[in-house]
Amino acid sequence: MYTTTISIGNPPTRFRAQVDTSWGPVFVPSVNCENVPCWMHYENMYNSGNSSTYSPNGTACQVGYWGQYGLWTKGNISQDNIHIGNMEVRNQEFEEVTHWIPSELEREDLYDTVLGLSLRDIDDRWTTFRAPSLFQSMVRQQLLKDGLFALRLSRTDAEVGELILGGIPEEIKSAGLIDIPLTRNFIEERSNDQGGGPDDKDDDIMRFYASGGWQVAIRNITVIGQGWSSSPIAILPKNYTAVISTSFPWIGVPFEVADEINQKLGLEEFMNAVNCDKRRTLPNITFHLGPSSKEIILTPWDYLIEVYNDARQELTCASPFWGREEEDLRGFLILGSPFLNGLYSVWDADRETLSFANRIGHDGDVAGVLG
After folding, report:
1. Which CA distances in Å does 21 have to 151, 207, 242, 257, 369?
2. pLDDT for residue 359 is more than 60
3. CA atoms within 13 A on the CB side of 59
4. Which residues, other chains included, contact 230 with Cβ-Cβ below 8 Å and sequence gap of 6+?
5. What's the whole-model pTM score?
6. For residue 215, with 0-12 CB atoms within 10 Å meaning exposed, 13-18 middle and 19 or more buried, which class applies?
7. CATH number of the domain bearing residue 357
8. How many domains, the chain?
């Protein structure tokens, strides 16, 4: 989970916001919240009576936020100015939450709201509140020098990530970026969908992720080196569309692909762990993206997830490859934070591209992008 700070109203009230390239509508806990989980955020609650720029709406709505494991809210639509860094997004509609309903595993105590960076409006059966993401509003209100943002996620808790709105870091040269055009594939609603919600068993997570707009063609995943083969071994059975997402904590692929990769890594299944010292013996994994199969390389220091084992009091490294049925994937894969960790990425709405720059390797060597 990657967070920053945003503020709402004048004078502004601060909120901890999860940075999410797949998300759109803003929702915040309100002082009018009626259930106990909401009051976990008592230090960061919106009070419309304190803001001179508040405009009432009052329309009832609800939001289903996938996040890590799931959060559902009910509330009312309001309008106010939202502050991000030195920018003020004017008259942004958002949900004042009156019922905050986290799933059992969701760490919603770590954030109060979401800084949505989706390119398009999201599609979710539970969410009735339709509003542009903050990134969409920044572009429409011409608050950014360029209609893009640059992002680098930290790979460990000891590192600090970076989000730049409207530009790219000075050390990253545009000529050195690997540009990949976006696709416009969508997933239609299944005919048996009945409305979704916290108790829905047919959650259709892929339709939600595919709606945000940041997606590219993926031609293959190959593995090479460290006891596998001197030539790349192709893993994907066919072409897919890959959704790139900061909030998805794994890499979602077909079951047989996840099983093959995990077994070759010496793991029996998803999230099984190995001693982190074994990373030097594990292979690199290459993702071939876009119509010309641009290569993005992940080393074991990139794709493995560091997890501290309390029982053994040691750091272990877990596989991020999460298997799903082909029917549920519906032609899509999800490349989540293990794909992005440490990698400079540029998300360009004007050019409709995703671009990548070299990441710095674990021991200072440059790794990550071939071209």
Report:
1. 10, 15, 14, 25, 21
2. yes
3. 12
4. 224
5. 0.89
6. buried
7. 2.40.70.10
8. 2
